Amino acid sequence: MVADGRRVKSNVISTQIPIHTLYGGVVPEIASRKHIERIDAVINEALSQADMKLGEVDAVAVTYGPGLVGALLVGVAEAKAIAYALGKPLIGVNHIKGHIAANYIEDITLTPPFLCLVVSGGHTHLIRVSDYDEYTIIGRTVDDAAGEAFDKVARAIGLGYPGGPKVEEAAKKGNAKAIRFPHARVEGNPYDFSFSGLKSAVLNYINGERMKGREIVSEDIAAAFQDAVVGVLCEHAGLAIDEFGDADLALAGGVAANKALREAVKNMCEDRGVRFHCPAIGLCTDNAAMIGSAGYYEYINGRRDGWDLNAVPQLKIS
Ligand code: KG4
Ligand code: ZN
């Protein structure tokens, strides 16, 4: 429950991490079943924590993409049912816009224009937010997302799911200088990202070491890999600041929970005299408050969805 787009009255998260850990990653079918099982209880808990009744809600915002279709459909069907029953507006929200909006909650003084580096499990985008409803993608990954690379490397070095936090933990005990992994450039656009080459470099390194009969030091691999990801993200964001001249840069998405990344991007911004923004860790990874905030700005811009709103797994931001 979010008031005026910026004030969080409640933000209830029902984690599926324990169940997906059993399978080493997200199983889409299980994810959507768990959504069905938990959604009513989560909404009731959110109302109770906000000390509100359903009838006091002004509008219902829901993620309709991008993402796993089964999970999206559960939310969309529930939101439609509630909005219809209450006779209140329904607003479908792009998940990525939600991640960006987490910054509006964190810093109530932040207003567009600003640059945003969105790094999640499914997306790696460098976006210029010129207004609440105006987004220009400056750079994007041409293959894997940064979070996906964390998850795949975690699996390769035996850390399991969820990859990002486990790699971050292991990296603290490792030496980032022990191995040099590549910082990929993408021909044609200096802001685009590519992480599949880095992932392959990690896998090749592991195979090479094993073939030589050497033990791999997973902490060093984690640290060197994380260093390469953070390095590339910082370089591209720095280039964009220099080119577009924005006074503010925001981080967003699940990977923004990574402390090494937060620290590096913050330092890079300070060196350039640019204000750095980053949501609290709990607002970086998927949550409902960020969708409420993004939904609010769509609401005041007059956007409304009909009862034919559907899940769009490949939804684009602009
Ligand atoms: O934004 P998010 O919660 O879900 C998507 O929209 O994808 O992001 C999840 C991604 C996962 O790939 C996860 O490994 C990564 O964010 N992640 C992290 C950290 N916490 C979550 N990556 C690096 N360091 C972390 N501390
Ligand atoms: Zn997300």
- Alpha-beta classification: alpha/beta
Cα-atom radius of gyration: 20 Å
Largest sheet: 5 strands, mixed
The strand line-up of the biggest sheet is 7-6-5-8-9
Low-pLDDT parts are: none
- CA-based shape: globular
Counting DSSP E segments of at least 2 residues, the number of strands comes to 9
Instruction: Name the bound molecules.
Output: 5'-O-[(R)-(carboxyoxy)(hydroxy)phosphoryl]adenosine, zinc ion
Mean pLDDT: 97
β-strand percent reads: 5-15%
Helix percent reads 40-55%
**How do the SSEs run, as a string of H and E?**
EEHHEHEHEEEHHHHEHEHH
How far apart lie the N and C ends? 26 Å
Count of DSSP H/I helices: 11
Descriptive report:
By secondary structure, the protein is an alpha/beta fold. Helices cover 49% and strands 14% of the residues. It has a five-stranded mixed sheet with strand order 7-6-5-8-9, sandwiched between helices. Strand 5 (114-119) and strand 6 (124-131) form a beta hairpin. It is globular, with a radius of gyration of 20 Å. The model has no long low-confidence stretch (mean pLDDT 97). Zinc ion binds at residues 95, 99, 120, 254, 286.
Topology:
Blueprint: E1 2-3, E2 7-8, H1 17-23, H2 28-50, E3 60-65, H3 69-86, E4 90-94, H4 95-106, E5 114-119, E6 124-131, E7 134-140, H5 146-156, H6 163-172, H7 196-211, H8 218-244, E8 248-252, H9 259-272, E9 275-277, H10 281-284, H11 288-300
Parallel strand pairs: 3-4, 5-8, 8-9
Antiparallel strand pairs: 1-2, 5-6, 6-7
Helix pairs in contact: 2-3, 4-11, 5-6, 5-7, 5-8, 6-8, 8-9
